[in-house]
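We treat protein structure as text, and this decision shapes the records that our systems exchange. Such a record has a labelled line for the sequence and another for the C-alpha cells. The record that follows is passed on verbatim for readers who wish to inspect the format:
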Amino acid sequence: MSMWQKWMMPGLVAGFCMIAPSAQAQDSASGPAGDDQASAPKAADATNVAASPETVDPEEKAAAFNRELLSVEEQVNALKERVFRSKATLQLLSEIVAQGSGAGSRATITHVNNLGRSYKIESLSYYLDGQARFSRSSVEGGLDDLDEVKVFDGPISAGTHSLSIAMQLRGSGGLFSYVDDIGFNVQSNATFDVKDGDDCTVRVEAEERGGLTKSFTERPNINFDVRCTRSTEDAGEQ
C-alpha cells in the first residue's frame, strides 16, 4: 500500500461514519411525520361522524306516539268496564241481602199520568237510591197513553230510600199552536222509610196545577204518596 492510500483510508472511514448517523436521523424524523399525515384523514372522518346528528323519521315518531296513545285509551276503557261491573255486582248483592234480611221488605212504585192533553211526555226516568230503575223515551208522545205504569216491583232493604223522577215535556196547544215549540224538564225527588217486613206502595202522580198566576211551564207538579204496611206473613206471626 502506497503512502497516499494509507493517508486517504482513515479519512474515508471517518466520512462514512459521519454520513450514516445523519441518514438514520432523517429516516427516523420522516417516519413519525408520515404516520401523522396518514392518520390525519382518519381523525377528521371520526370528527365528522361524531358531529353529524342522528336523523329521526317524523312519520315513525308519530306512529310510535299513536301506538302509545291507543294503549292508554285501551287501559281507560278497561277501567271503565271494571267500574261498571263492580256497580252491577254491588246492586245485585244489595238485592240479595234485602231478600234474605229478616222477614224481607218489598216496594212497588207506580207512575200515574194526570197531566192532561196540554202536555206530551217525551221521556220518563226513575231513579231509586241513585240507580236507574225505569227509562223510556218517545218523541211522538206515546208515553201519554200510559195512564199508569209500574216502574219498580221487588225486594228492598230496610232503611231510608231516595226516589227521583225526571220528565221531559213538550206543549200540545191545540188551538194555541205556539206552545208546541215549548219544551222543558220537570224533576222531583222524595225520601221514604222502610222497616223490616214492610210492604210499601209508592204512587207518583204527575198532575197539572191550576191557577192563573202560574205559567205554562210551572203548572206540572209531582206528588208522592207512600204507604207501608206489615207483610201478611209477619202480621200472621204476631
About this structure: Confidence is low (pLDDT under 50) at residues 22-34, 36-41, 46-53.
